[in-house]
Amino acid sequence: MSYNHNDSYYPPPPPANYAQQGSYAPQGSYNPQGGYPPPPQQQAYPQNGGFYGSDYNQAPPQQSYEPPSTQYPPPPPQDYGSNGGDFKGAKHYNREPKFRDLWAALLFLLQFALFVVIAALFIKSLPSTAFKHSNNKHSTKDFFSLPTMIMWLCVLLVSIVFSIVYLGLMQMFAGKMLVISFWFAVVSMIGTGIYYLAAKIWFAGGIMLIFGIFYALMWFSWRHRIPFSKLVLEVVCHITRKFPSTIAISVSFLLIQALYSAFWSLAFAGSFKHMQQYQSCSTHMDRNGRQYESCSNVRQILAWVFMVFSFYWTSSVILNVLHTTICGTFATFYFFEGAPQGYPTKHVTLSSLKRAMTNSFGSICFGSLVVAIIQTVRAIVRAIRSQGDGNIVLQLLACCADCILGCIEAIVEFFNKYAYVEIAMYGKSFVPAAKDTWTLIKDRGVDALINDCLIGNVLQMGAFLCAAVVALVAWLYITITRPEYNITGSYTAPIIIAAFVLAMSMFMVLLKCIDSGAATTFVCLAEDPDAMARNNPRLFAMVRETYPQVVRGVHAVDRF
Predict the structure, then answer these.
(1) What's the gap between Cα 542 and its chain centre?
(2) Which distant-in-sequence residues (6+ apart) come within 8 Å of 153 by Cβ?
């Protein structure tokens, strides 16, 4: 198996000479006879405290490593270019990478331009009083009023403040946050089950109680993951402190996503009135001889399908550009922190953003297109499911289709998440990046680290808490201001639900730096474990002790 890195952006520096007796032999160096040297029984570190022949502030403590009883055959020699032992891509550094998947970028820009034209027509159809504001804040009769806009601004500000505060808590109390997040999930499930039982929703209440109890029992098998997850979280938070621009760019992309969502919402609201002119109605006779009118609007349905597809695709592109940018920043730190030549650019995050918006933009659009198609089909299935009109067979088929599509969507998003890391590092096209990344992760055994990492639990707990706080703020605001359009309270529940979902999505965007940083760490570890020995000896020592197959590599036959 070989990996093509001829179009690399920032290839890691080549491994230095490990000539000292008993020192760790890097994975990237192999002998021409076709084998990697087996790991030594005793790891002896250089006396000067460095892994790459230079002095570092902290060296890993000396540890005795005993290989497990299961012997892994050495992996086959990999093609790293003409200079055998050199790190892949180090001798083929291309400072002007090519534009990848250009067709996807052009297609995305074409659909976005079409959406802007259609949205402009729809927004013009909104009533002229929608944006007028009376001096009396209680006299506004339309939902699109200044008090409502102020409420959504409060939702945005509270979400940003809460997310930043939560990020600070993660940095200060990494281990405690992991434990709290686990038991928070348990309490949430059991509490929801009790609520359902009290509301006499017996089936849902029983299911939630069973899941909560089983989740609590999982503590005994999951608690050994906490030290590793804590160290990974501390490392990721340390890098975000070193590059605060990752937080700043997350806030910037959050504002972009919020503006786009607001623009899309206005266009969607205006589509109802604009598309009424294309509605056609006809009169029919039922079995009892009574007449009834049936109306249809094919153009409106097509317009809605396109708008939903455009929203999914554009939102996914915005988030994945952010994800790829942060991945490029973390990868640069991973491979160049502590290297003699230093970083290859002065502004690491801006350079990564430039690559994501130019050379890799087509690859990002390609991966986002796949997810957007699945999400759009899922939305159509859900619409059919809601319009079942008591047809049990139709609803059952729609439910099964929705479940299958949900599983496919989760798998594709999981693959994309790590494929974008390879795109950020080497500027590959989307399909080769997805194939190479997953093959690399499986061959190295890094999938075990991904499964054992509990950082996602902390982020999910934070997203739920942020959403709950923001929903409370929205409820208080609409209760205090009492706009006329909500005299009957019919808008209260939709506004609270919308605020809850919006806050949760904004939280995940703002803390994308944590999720993207962890994903990049795993992929970079699979690419070059020895670089971690230089820039983070503590994490490298834990990985080598707990997951020795990651450092040594796993032969393909061991996966079967």
Answers:
(1) 26
(2) none
Nearest to 212 by CA among 185, 249, 239: 185
DSSP secondary structure, 258-308, as one string: HHHHHHHHHHHHHHHHHGGGG-EEEEEE-TTS-EEEEEE-HHHHHHHHHHH
Could you tell me the CA-to-CA distances from 417 to 115, 246, 314, 316 in Å, in that order? 27, 17, 17, 12
Token pair listed for 369? 């297109």
Instruction: Report angle CA 153, 155, 121 to the nearest 5 degrees.
Output: 55
pTM of the full structure: 0.73
How many residues make up the chain in this entry?
Answer: 560
Residues 6+ apart with CB under 8 A from 12: 87, 89, 90, 334, 335, 336, 527, 528, 531
β-pair partners for 291: 285
Q: Tokens at residue 34, please?
A: 């076709």
Helix, strand, coil percentages (3-state) for the chain, rounded to 5, are: 65, 5, 30
Residue 443 and residue 525 in contact, taking contact as beta carbons nearer than 8 Å: no
The phi, psi pair for 132, rounded to 5°, reads: -85, 150
Give 390's pLDDT tier (boundaries 50, 70, 90): low
Buried b (16+ CB within 10 A) or exposed e, 88-115: bbbebeeeebeebbbebbebbeebeeeb
Q: CB–CB of 327/353 below 8 Å?
A: no
- Distance, in Å, from the CA atom of 211 to the CA atom of 186, rounded to the nearest integer, reads 8
What pLDDT, in 10s, does the model give residues 461-519?
A: 888 888 888 888 888 888 887 777 677 777 777 788 888 888 888 888 888 888 898 88
Residues 327, 22: Cα–Cα separation, whole Å: 34
